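quick one, 233 residues, struct below
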Amino acid sequence: MESKKHVLIIGSGPNALKANELKTAFDAIVVINNAWRVRDDWTHFIYPFDFSKERWPQEINYSQTVITEKEFVPIQNKYGGFIFAGATMAFTAGYWVLGALKPSHISFIGCDMHYPKNGKTHFYGNGTADPLREDISLMSLKAKSNRFLHFSRKQNCLVGNLSDGPSKLTFPRITSKNSWPKTPSFKENLVSEALEREKELGYFDITGRYWQNLDKYDANEIKKIDDLWEQII
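---
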């Protein structure tokens, strides 16, 4: 697949609608689940197996591509699999972009995974807070966010968050004064230890459906790795 220099990933957070105000010319726009409603110039529509067909866009033109688990599971597996990378679509879309489009820049918006008690949780109203479900791969969103930053830097890809509100993402903020902030420095000894522990545990399911074999995984061991990723910055 052709390399895309600057990719925008749009989630379903309330501020996703601000993506319409962006003047940047993106090489690809990846929309997650319902976010295809935000901008009609999206290039890639990515969704999990349980995203109902009734919620799909009614029309998909020749320049737009649908990305399903057939495409994103093998790529996320190359980055360590869903248990270590985080099984929610913001991270899955990010790893798919890294592996398939190989960009130099990724901008996220509407992917903050922050759900206020009052007001809208999603740009279209209120919805299920998928990243907050009880799941062994999502015990620490901070850890998974830091981990994604590591793999992005390894590919010489800058990552930034265009959102200006509360966020679970640890990505540097992109502002009008600081369009591309530098990736923070990492504690490389902790990165190496986290990756080595992942390798030792070998928690991996080639289908991506790890929840069908939960008895194979120890949440305490995963938490130890999460603790390391939390501390790398």
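The longest helix spans residues 141-154.
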